[in-house]
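Extended Data, panel c. Modelled sequence:
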Amino acid sequence: MTGRHEAAQPDGRPRFDLADAYAVETPDDNRGLYARWASTYESGFIADNGYVYHLGVAGAFAEAATVDDGPVLDVGCGTGLVGEALRSFGSWVVDGLDLSSEMLDEARAKSTGDGSPVYGDLHVGDLTATLDLATGGYGAVVSCGTFTHGHVGPGAFDELHRIARPGALFAIGINPEHFTNLGFTARFASDVAAGRITEPVVHRVQTYASGDHVGQVSPVVVFRTLC
């Protein structure tokens, strides 16, 4: 994919643009985009748009979580914004998963106030394929920014449920349009009916605090696995 909306920062490096993120259609598109923009993702897109969705996702998780809800897998962790927020709310052990090794390099550099790494293990993984993670290994799953692209739909929950143990807490951010149009509501209803998950609680949280998209809210779906 070619970054149709690419612009340069003052130092000449490409600046991340929301339209480019929404234009990705395949995992390879995703890898190419974030390989180019990993180093400027926070200084460009996050700062320019006042992006705060990660804080809402982490807050929804923390509101429902107990000290036993771990380890936590941060799915699509990117540069580590959700992990940083989670560690500020509590002392959970947090691992990260992302399709982009370049984004994981940024997350790997993140540390807490006491100097310890934000993340334990960091994994390269594709949610549209089988993950190289053990069955039932996680007590919680969070995600922010992954279910915003058309190639990652509700079918990804098959793998996420596999790697989560019974009773695992999920807090999943989903693009508002995708939530309606790609079948997420139907997927959650089917999982409830089958006894796989608890009835989801949908929080609507602020996505941007400034910029062109200020005022937009996005869902964070919170539930627990039952089997």
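The two ends are 39 Å apart (CA to CA). This feature is highlighted in the accompanying rendering.
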